[in-house]
């Protein structure tokens, strides 16, 4: 009961912070995403590399911050897009600095540095493309994306924990033994329901068919995002990526689905000129 209360309170606090960051101001939005991205990269590097290559870790996070800030400036203030190439400066410095690393015995572990940039920094930098339109900040669509993802997670947990452990097959037992096909379908149903409710409230302005297809794509992508992170944790022999959110684990644990689902939703809407 105490753990459930802790999870509920910390989860509620997490939602409040997300709402403030997405709805109040573009600078709060930028600060929120930068904080989330930095923590996620720190968790990923702590999980995969540990204390090694600290300079390279710092340079990778610097590259991620520069990437996000440049895309933010481009979308919010029409900062020339040609300057986005500046993102490569710390990346090149990172590569050169690796040649002077003292410990070369496990040099191949340095590849995790670049994985963090591609896996975490790139998707989170691109959320600026969703939060801005013609220089105006409006993260309502991004909020709808997160509501769909959260409802998908809730549905998967609720149905999976009640039916999936007793009936039906496991979804991917070698990676995540608790995930079941019952949970998969439950998450899909909740994601579609979320789209319908968002349309009824006027928060999501999309044709019903497109909304349902988008929800389905985001749900499937989110499941793969969850499994992808679970594979990393299993390979690194850790239970959670961190402990920053009491009762929920790390920031990477909370956004593993979103890293895959948000780009999937954005790509679908872009293909039909709905974003």
How would you sum up this structure, described in words?
With 275 residues, the chain is mainly alpha-helical. It has two domains: 1-137, no CATH class; 139-275, no CATH class. The chain has helices at 2-23, 26-48, 54-77, 88-98, 111-125, 128-131, 140-164, 181-200, 208-236, 251-271; strands at 132-133, 136-137, 170-172, 176-180. Strands 1-2 form a two-stranded antiparallel ribbon. Strands 3-4 form a two-stranded antiparallel sheet. β1 and β2 (136-137) form a beta hairpin. α7 (140-164) crosses α10 and α9 (208-236) packs antiparallel against α10 (251-271). The mean pLDDT is 89.
- How big is the Rg? 19 Å
- Report the principal-axis shape: globular
Percent strand: under 5%
Oligomer, anyone? Answer: single chain
Task: Name the average pLDDT.
Answer: 89
Give a count of the beta strands, DSSP E runs of length 2 or more: 4
Give the topology string: H per helix, E per strand: HHHHHHEEHEEHHH
- Given helix and strand content, the structural type is mainly alpha
SSE layout and pairings?
Elements: H1 2-23, H2 26-48, H3 54-77, H4 88-98, H5 111-125, H6 128-131, E1 132-133, E2 136-137, H7 140-164, E3 170-172, E4 176-180, H8 181-200, H9 208-236, H10 251-271
Antiparallel strand pairs: 1-2, 3-4
Offer a concise description of the structure:
The protein has helices at 2-23, 26-48, 54-77, 88-98, 111-125, 128-131, 140-164, 181-200, 208-236, 251-271; strands at 132-133, 136-137, 170-172, 176-180. By secondary structure, the chain is mostly helical.
């Amino acid at each position: 009961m105490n753990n459930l209360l802790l999870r509920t309170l910390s989860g509620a606090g997490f939602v409040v912070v997300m709402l403030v960051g997405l709805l109040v101001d573009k600078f709060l939005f930028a600060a929120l995403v930068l904080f989330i991205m930095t923590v996620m990269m720190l968790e990923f590097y702590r999980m995969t590399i540990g204390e090694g290559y600290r300079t390279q870790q710092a340079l990778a996070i610097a590259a991620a911050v520069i990437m996000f800030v440049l895309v933010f400036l481009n979308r919010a203030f029409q900062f020339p897009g040609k300057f986005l190439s500046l993102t490569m400066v710390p990346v090149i410095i990172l590569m050169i600095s690796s040649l002077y690393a003292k410990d070369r015995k496990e040099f191949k572990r340095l590849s995790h540095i670049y994985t963090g940039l591609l896996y975490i920094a790139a998707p989170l930098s691109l959320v600026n493309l969703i939060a801005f339109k013609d220089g105006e900040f409006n993260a309502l669509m991004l909020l709808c994306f997160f509501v769909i993802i959260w409802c998908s997670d809730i549905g998967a947990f609720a149905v999976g924990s009640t039916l999936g452990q007793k009936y039906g097959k496991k979804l991917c037992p070698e990676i995540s033994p608790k995930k079941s096909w019952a949970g998969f379908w439950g998450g899909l149903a909740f994601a579609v329901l979320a789209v319908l409710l968002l349309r009824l409230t006027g928060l999501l302005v999309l044709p019903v068919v497109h909304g349902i297809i988008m929800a389905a794509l985001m749900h499937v992508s989110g499941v793969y995002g969850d499994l992808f992170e679970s594979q990393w944790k299993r390979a690194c022999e850790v239970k959670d990526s961190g402990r920053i959110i009491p009762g929920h684990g790390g920031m990477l644990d909370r956004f593993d689905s979103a890293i895959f689902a948000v780009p999937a939703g954005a790509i679908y809407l872009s293909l039909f000129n709905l974003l």
